């Protein structure tokens, strides 16, 4: 009797962890999609140093705002996001955060969000909220890694 109970319990726990994992993936897909949608809705918003609203964004302000609208709280700066949130990934997916620094030994000073098809959305000091390619000649050499939230 005890053996049947333990077996049933193990099966139940196994199934619940499968459903939890599936639910986690579905939730992640939702807030990544939502964060991308929010960021795209702000295309053309001007750059504003320290900006965290649709009146003006800096790079981390756009990411923080977009994820907040999707239900995820992120820290204020690119460096804080890099050092305290998510996990590093080598194969990027839509919604992953891309981090950039002046050189490989520096802390991140810029963050963008990957939107798929080799493109990212970010707040640029010269053009405001914009979409560009991840392999562009300015940002590509400054890339230091990606994280999935």
Summarize the structure in words:
The protein is built from three helices and eight strands. The protein has 149 residues and is α+β, with helices and mostly antiparallel strands. Helix 1 (2-41) crosses helix 2 (59-69). It is globular and about 35 Å long. Strands 3-8-4-5-6-7 form a six-stranded antiparallel sheet. A two-stranded antiparallel ribbon has the order 1-2.
Q: Largest sheet, described in full? A: 6 strands, antiparallel
Order of helices and strands: HEEHHEEEEEE
Summarize the amount of helix as a percent range.
25-40%
Contiguous runs where pLDDT drops below 50 for at least 5 residues: 2-22
Query: How confident overall, as mean pLDDT?
Result: 86
Number of helices: 3
Alpha-carbon Rg, integer: 19 Å
Q: N- to C-terminal separation?
A: 44 Å
Content of β-strand: 15-25%
How many β-strands, per DSSP?
Answer: 8
Looking at the structure, what is the overall shape?
A: globular
- Which structural class is indicated by helix and strand composition? alpha+beta
Task: Please give the order of strands in the largest beta sheet.
Answer: 3-8-4-5-6-7
What's this entry about, in short?
The protein is an alpha+beta fold. The protein is built from three helices and eight strands.
Annotation keywords:
149 residues; alpha+beta; six-stranded antiparallel sheet; two-stranded antiparallel ribbon; disordered N terminus
